[in-house]
Amino acid sequence: MANSASGMAVNDECKLKFMELKAKRTHRFIVYKIDEKAKQVIVEKLGEPVSSYEDFTASLPADECRYAIYDFDFVTAENVQKSRIFFIAWSPDTSRIRSKMIYASTKESFKRELDGIQVELQATDPTEMDLDVIRGRAN
Fold this sequence. Notes:
The protein starts with 8 loop residues before the first strand and ends with a helix. Strand 4 (66-75) and strand 5 (81-90) form a beta hairpin. It has helices at residues 12-24, 53-58, 97-113, 131-138, and strands spanning 9-10, 29-35, 40-47, 66-75, 81-90, 119-123. Helix content is 32%, strand content 30%. With 139 residues, the chain is an alpha/beta fold. The protein is built from four helices and six strands. This is Actin-depolymerizing factor.
């Protein structure tokens, strides 16, 4: 079942929750964590559809790596309601080097499992993924 350079597998729930977010919009965001003991990527937290971007950023640990999906709703300059699905690789400078290496080597194969990602973002501190950055990348 291992499918990445790091030997980490992707738990089926990861894909299932992503499909729910994409098709049914039952979640605003999903935070994924690598469980080193089980050698797989698992769902750590789901955000309700009414969750704010602040709720999302608050759910990311300050000193540990995570993958996250965020469903960003916005209105274009032409006043059209749109949505973009962001994949965020959260790798804070303060996280363990081993953790950064495992997340980096697992990222591409994990992303391939989630069909429908529209924008990818790599962030090492909160300013690299603040709302202005998200807005700028969404258009």
